[in-house]
Amino acid sequence: MAEIYDTTINGLVVRTGDLICTVDGERSLVPGQFWWFVGRLIPGEVDHIVVYVGPGGRCVEAGAKAKVIEFEAPPGGWDAHAMFGQRGFVDRFYGVAYPLENRDLSPEATEAIRGEVADYCLAKVGKPYNLNFLNPDTEAAFYCSQLAWKAYLPHGIDFNTGLGVEGFPGSERIIFPHEVWASCRHAKAPEA
């Protein structure tokens, strides 16, 4: 089981297994403009999910590199420009979702789940990006919120609320980042 770590990002405490939520790209860079456009297509206020594993700023995500990657967030604050080389993605920190809070779990169970979630995500590094959003059940490829969903599902935590996109049949199977945000106690980042 992975060790449990704490860090602070933009003033919010993040522990192993917590979910960093981001929103659209920064429009100051061309890649950011692309991701801003993509973010407009995703329902809800959150566009992307990153799993914090620790230590330091170590995170796992499925994203722009077309696979699941491990990357290092700089100490203290989310700096998409500094992480661009690692991630190929420019986004803005929105807040943190805390999947294990308010779940009536013992401290021991909470710590065990945190470690298992981190181990699961780290074991998926290198897997390809899942472009078939209608197939979240696959273990062969992952999109961002699907990775978090699959990591927590064995522990009885299901982020899929059935949110869909009107006129897009089957979209209720997609695990949208906003569903993850809305399914957890969460904290929005202080305004800069």
> Numbering strands along the chain, what is their spatial order in the largest sheet?
6-5-4-3-7-8
Structural class: alpha+beta
The averaged pLDDT comes out at 89
Order of helices and strands: EEEHEEEHEHHHE
Radius of gyration: 15 Å
CATH architecture: Alpha-Beta Complex
Uncertain residue segments: none
Name of the top-level CATH class: Alpha Beta
Name the beta content range.
Answer: 15-25%
**Total number of helical segments?**
5
Can you give the helix content as a percent range?
Answer: 25-40%
CATH topology label: endopeptidase fold (from Nostoc punctiforme)
- Please describe the biggest sheet, giving its number of strands, its sense, and whether it closes into a barrel: 6 strands, antiparallel
Count the E strands: 8
How many domain units? 1
Furnish the topology, listing elements before pairings.
Layout: E1 6-9, E2 12-15, E3 19-23, H1 30-41, E4 48-52, E5 58-62, E6 68-72, H2 80-87, E7 92-98, H3 107-123, H4 144-152, H5 177-183, E8 185-188
Antiparallel strand pairs: 1-2, 3-4, 3-7, 4-5, 5-6, 7-8
In short:
This protein has 192 residues and is of the alpha+beta class. The protein contains 5 helices and 8 strands; from the N terminus they run E-E-E-H-E-E-E-H-E-H-H-H-E.
Structure report:
The protein is globular, with a radius of gyration of 15 Å. Helix content is 28%, strand content 20%. It has a single domain, classed as endopeptidase fold (from Nostoc punctiforme). With 192 residues, it is an alpha+beta fold. The longest helix has 17 residues, at 107-123.
